[in-house]
Amino acid sequence: MEIKPILTEADYQEALLQVESLMTAKFGTPDGERLNALATLVESYEAKHFRLVSTDSVEKIKFPIDRHESP
């Protein structure tokens, strides 16, 4: 299999399947190097397409409190 840029959702899903199949690869082997390269590409794609919402510490505390208050 050829390593190529991840440009589409289909590319991303294929890369995830390849990463999963290589999870037991040993460091320094050809499969381990392939896993490293694919993981880097997946990480880059996810950083661009999946935004994680970050909240500050106060908001993390207030959310559970707000859910338990009576209206």
Describe it:
- The chain is mostly helical and 71 residues long.
- The protein has one domain.
- Helix 1 runs antiparallel to helix 2.
- The termini are far apart.
Give the tags.
mainly alpha, elongated
Quick gist of this model?
By secondary structure, the protein is mainly α. The protein is built from three helices and no strands.
Name the shape in a single word. Answer: elongated
Number of E strands: 0
Number of helices: 3
Low-confidence stretches: none
Task: Give the proportion of residues in helices.
Answer: 55-70%
Estimated share of beta-strand residues: under 5%
Quote the distance from N terminus to C terminus: 58 Å
Give a short account of the largest sheet.
none
Radius of gyration: 19 Å
The overall pLDDT average reads 84
In terms of structural class, how would the helical and strand content be classed?
A: mainly alpha
